[in-house]
Here is the input.
Amino acid sequence: MFKRLFFLALISFNSYADLRATGDLGVVIERAEGSALIINHSQNTTLAKIKDLGDLSHASVVFSRDQRYAFIFGRDGGLTKIDLLKDKVAKRVIQAGNSIGGAISQDGQFIAVSNYTPGGIKIFSTESLELVADVPAEYGDKKLSKVVGLVDAPKHHFIFSLFDAGEIWVVNIKNPEKPIIKKFKNSGKQPYDALLSPDGRYYIAGLFGEQGLALLDLWNVDQGVKRILPDYGKKDEKLPVYKMPHLEGWAMAGDFMLIPAMGQHEVLVIDKRQWTLVKRIPVAGQPVFVMAQPDGRQVWVNFAFPDNQQLQVIDLKNLSIIKSLTPGKAVLHMEFTPRGEHVWVSIRDDNQLVIYDTENFKEIKRLPANKPSGIFFSSRAYKMGL
Amino acid sequence: MFKRLFFLALISFNSYADLRATGDLGVVIERAEGSALIINHSQNTTLAKIKDLGDLSHASVVFSRDQRYAFIFGRDGGLTKIDLLKDKVAKRVIQAGNSIGGAISQDGQFIAVSNYTPGGIKIFSTESLELVADVPAEYGDKKLSKVVGLVDAPKHHFIFSLFDAGEIWVVNIKNPEKPIIKKFKNSGKQPYDALLSPDGRYYIAGLFGEQGLALLDLWNVDQGVKRILPDYGKKDEKLPVYKMPHLEGWAMAGDFMLIPAMGQHEVLVIDKRQWTLVKRIPVAGQPVFVMAQPDGRQVWVNFAFPDNQQLQVIDLKNLSIIKSLTPGKAVLHMEFTPRGEHVWVSIRDDNQLVIYDTENFKEIKRLPANKPSGIFFSSRAYKMGL
Here is the structure.
């Protein structure tokens, strides 16, 4: 009996000793295995591995407003709610046939998922993962469009783009069972991704089918969608684009927006007051992610194949490259610690995560990971438009 | 024996059931009683009350990078580390005779406290609260200045102002035992508070002894301290200033900085590219805190006595007031939820906290609190310059 008592006391003690805050946690996608690592970015350690998450070949993650749960959007339409305190799956549903990403509402109550098949978005309760609303992306003669560039926006809004229809839709889910949809037609040919400015004001979609970008000013929606940067895009039909740049990784810093020049070895610097081109910065390859450090001074860039072993750092003071690094084979993603002192980098073909000190570019640590791709820290819980 | 077994099992169960994420927690100062409430801003509830924290008549709070701990800086020089998962004091030291505020370093390893008596800052380990460095604010003939406007800044820096000396000091604590101090003399007469721009670039000190503001561009420290807004400040010697405005509450939003006009019933709108005055917005009283909603669209303003029963909301689109509220007697502080859907307001003389929906200005809930003053949410863990 004493043994059992001791055992129970031990359980009790352990569960107490395991108390875990959630401010410095993160999730790393292991794309090939369909698994995810829970990491701690204060200790630079892996805490747990969660398996059986389906096809994570193009996965993204958002976090509940309390940071306890990570929601993983899988390519196969799987939506998985991970409990970061218990290191396990809290709930998992297959919500569609082919999914591309998701977002969480400003108040944290709803998750929206954007789907290719069937084209549209579905809205779920974050609590139960039960379906709350289904918004098919219908256009023309009852056709369904692939949905891309889904973001949350202030005041109960989700915004997304219809790739096939060339439309931007703004959905108000204040009454989630009766979403109010505002459609902006003729927004541009084949929008392929989009971003929301960090202040929640501007929704900008990249266009694959034509040059320029589509801009919706959410403070002035009545003005409709405008075209900006008319020279931006894929000019030469024969120019190969090895990987579509991610707009979510575009850098908004001070007065500038830094974006990848599509198919070219350049980062473009845009003055975001007039949406005009300020400078073209030559870089080591076709940029994929162009990400601003949280302290606003530097922008980090990774590249498409065959230059994806490299990383470059742009100093915003002089708008020039101050550092080039070669972390390893196939640098896929970067994530900064919330205040920017470190950056985590996933190196798929070396099966590693590398952590750098952003002040001196020194390597702090390497951690093993199986074909890591996206890295997502719980600090995203507080950010709009992800 | 079975009873004891059951009891232990119960403890075990409870400690598990109590698992608590830290992303939606906050601390509310109860200034008269020297206590603090731990609150949850998803549930809009009070979780615990922590007593015996000394003189909290002018208290502020920062959070550890994992959001597990809140560090409370008391007026009496008390520095208390609260464990937000165990609802108790983890450690408490009396570090000086008269303290005014504090900051936590970018990497979360160090806490700095600014002191009036003896004038200077002291730097502590966040882990142990052991003293790591003592930086007396010595000037002139071995005199010690009161220290104000202490902030953390990127890359191992703390920055603060010397009220009596009229100096701004930038301290690098990369080697915390040998801090490197850069002193900017003649920075302006009697700096009384300061702020860091959210991107970590500009340190701006308000001046009590003369007009204008002192600006240090941290990207160009060699250019030294400049004076901006030369007409800003207390023009009329006889004009009473009922409460010194807090610079930490100045609003940076888009291209604008909104600041309280000292001693006047106005909020000033500054173009932060040229540091020029764009507009004066008449408001209901002498503004104290002028705070931008995280979604950047609105700015909330509270007031000094005798107008401190009011709150006003400025819309940034038209730079005009769109709402006036009268929450209760002595509105002291406001804190937005991380993505801005709610704002919490402390009403000292009504012994209440009021929670508003920022979309429609409706009251969501009132919670009891004993003479509440500052409200601090754990999302501050990720912010620079607090």
Q: What stands out?
A: The longest strand of chain A covers residues 110-117. The two ends of chain A are 54 Å apart (CA to CA).
